[in-house]
Structure formats: C-alpha cells, structure tokens
Amino acid sequence: MYKAVISGVGSYLPERILTNQDLERMVETNDEWITTRTGISERRIAAETEATSDLAYQAAVAALQDAGLTATDLDMLIVATSTPDYQLPPVASLLQHRLGCRPISAFDVSVTCIGFISAMETASQYIQTGKHKHILVVGADALSRITDYADRTTCILFGDGAGAAILSRAEPSTDQGVIHASTHSAGEHFFSLYVPGTGSRQMMPEEAAKKGKIIMEGRKIFKLAVTSMSQTVKETLEASGYDQADLDWVIPHQANQRIIEAVAHNLELPLEKMVSTIKYYGNNSAATIPVAMDTAIRDGRIKRGDLVMLVAFGGGLVWGSLLLRY
Ligand code: ACO
C-alpha cells in the first residue's frame, strides 16, 4: 500500500472579528462568562460578500502553494462543510472550477464538525490504493449564517473559516502519512444539535415555525463530546499499535476549551500537546482542525516526523479520530 502524506496545508480566516465585548452589546452575556466557560475571546465572521466557497478557495490556494503544486496536479477534491453556498450543487464543483482543476472528481461531505477527518479518511483510501496521486481536502464553514444572534447559549461559540490539506502519494517505505482513522455516528442524539426548518422537512408543520438556526442542548453535547473524543483517540491508538505517550500532538475540534482540557485529562496528556486556537477563532466546525493544524505547522510546533492525532465530534452525534505522521 502507498502512503498518503500531507504535502501542503493552508487556511483562511475572514477579516472581521466579533469579540466578546461585541456580543455583550447583542445578548445578555459578559466577557468573563464566555472566557471562563468556553475559552473563546473572539471569532471571525465572513463578510456579506463571502460564502463558504470563497473561504475554501483561499485555504486551497494556500495549501497548493505550500505543496508546490498547481490545481491541474489534483486528481480529486473533497470539501467538508455543513454550510454550502447552495443546497445544491456541491461547493466542491465551484471550487474545482475556480481553482482551474481538470474535470476531476469533486464532492462535498456533510458530517458536521468531523467533516475534515471523514474527508481525510476518504482521500487517504484513494491514495493508498494507488488510484490517485494528489487530493485536496478542505474543511470550510460559515456557521455565522446559521447562528441565532439572539441566542446567548450558541452565538458566543461559532465563527467562520476554512482550512485545507493536500494528501499526496508516497512510497510504502516512508514512515510519514495517514496511519489509521476511526469514525462513528449515533443518531439517537440527532436532535441535540440541529438546524430546524431547513431541508426536505421544512414544510412539515412542526418545522415550519422554526427558523433555520442552530438549536443545541449544550450541556448534553459537552458530556458526549468529552466521552466520545477520549474513547476514539484510544481506539485509533490501539488499532495503530501506539499509546498516548507516543503522541507528539493532538489537534482536537475547537468547540470549548474545557472540552479540550477534559479530553487531555482523560488521556493523561499534558495540555501543551493539545493544539488550541479556540481563543481567537471559536468553533468554525469543519474548519477547526485544518486551521489549527496549519497554525501549529506554521509556528514551528508540528515538525516533519511528528505523530499527530486529529480528533473531533459534532452534531449527529458523530465522532472520530485520525492518526498520521506528518
Ligand atoms: N452568558 C451568560 N450566561 C449564560 C450564557 C451566556 N452566553 N449562556 C448560558 N448562560 C447561563 C445559562 O442560562 C445557565 O444559567 P442558570 O444556571 O441560571 O440556568 C448558566 O449560564 C449555566 O448554563 P450551562 O448551559 O450549564 O453552561 P455550561 O457551562 O454547560 O456552558 C456551553 C454552556 C458553553 C454551551 C457548553 O455546554 C458547551 O460548550 N457545550 C458544548 C457545545 C458544543 O460544543 N457545540 C458544538 C458542537 S459541534 C457542531 O456540530 C457545530
């Protein structure tokens, strides 16, 4: 089997910053509550003229540049998003055209906040079998478009952004590349985090009155997140023949700093090994992991050869992890 190695990464965050102080003027909240309960100080919000494909495009261009590739080198592209520009067709088609790719296979995956992990897992299969050489994987979301800015329990958490990685084929002898991934779904928790009044249920009487914004049972999701993320890291390590002590870095979904800390505690990992960007960007769903990965590679923390665990949970409930050697 070939190896699927990360050959380039990139990210893009919109310019507009929404601070805790801004939110104090919008809902009954305060900086101290938000900071201590979530670890978030600010988040980025896409301009009115920016859609998910625009965020994805900027991140993709940066990743191509980092890999030293051009768009015509790509054999496939996958966009993970829950906030596509339109209900159909996929963001991936817009991106394929705008980047100037050949008429390659391009599709979206919708797996909420684990979307980037699921897309990386899928892409790595195409590379490892030898079918493709270079695949672009993007996680991009504009959660501000489905956030209710009158609901203080959710609007303090979410933001917009995009991150991208290119997986490239390498010889089986290299020790770099994707090692193992585990992904799961437990639909009995479906309505603990969802966007009512959208999709093919929008005409149903019980949905019609609702408004197309995220509804969430925060406390329940918090507990499920800690348990599922801790469990999936252990399962992926076990399947790969590694243990916690071997990990150089964990890149967790950025949903709440207290979730990140609880997972580190459960796994008996020092907090310094958990990459966190939540303070500045909040939760931008499928983008959190590739943005954090790009940040930690660029600032020199993650180096070639490091063992890195990606781990996430999201609405569905879905959860998963992916182990790679950078
Ligand atoms: N400002 C001030 N007070 C608030 C705010 C706020 N923004 N929000 C809630 N409160 C109040 C509540 O009303 C409650 O008051 P009460 O005790 O008088 O009833 C009190 O603060 C405590 O509320 P809790 O919900 O228990 O607060 P908690 O510590 O659980 O924090 C939070 C809430 C931040 C939502 C947390 O539960 C959380 O992060 N959950 C996970 C959510 C998540 O990660 N969602 C994303 C999933 S990924 C995806 O798919 C998009």
From TrEMBL:
Any single biological process term in GO: fatty acid biosynthetic process
Superkingdom, natural source: Bacteria
A GO cellular-component term linked to this record: cytoplasm
Pathway noted in the entry: Lipid metabolism; fatty acid biosynthesis
Compartments, as annotated in UniProt: Cytoplasm
Pfam families: ACP_syn_III, ACP_syn_III_C
Protein name, entry field: Beta-ketoacyl-[acyl-carrier-protein] synthase III
Organism annotation: Brevibacillus fulvus
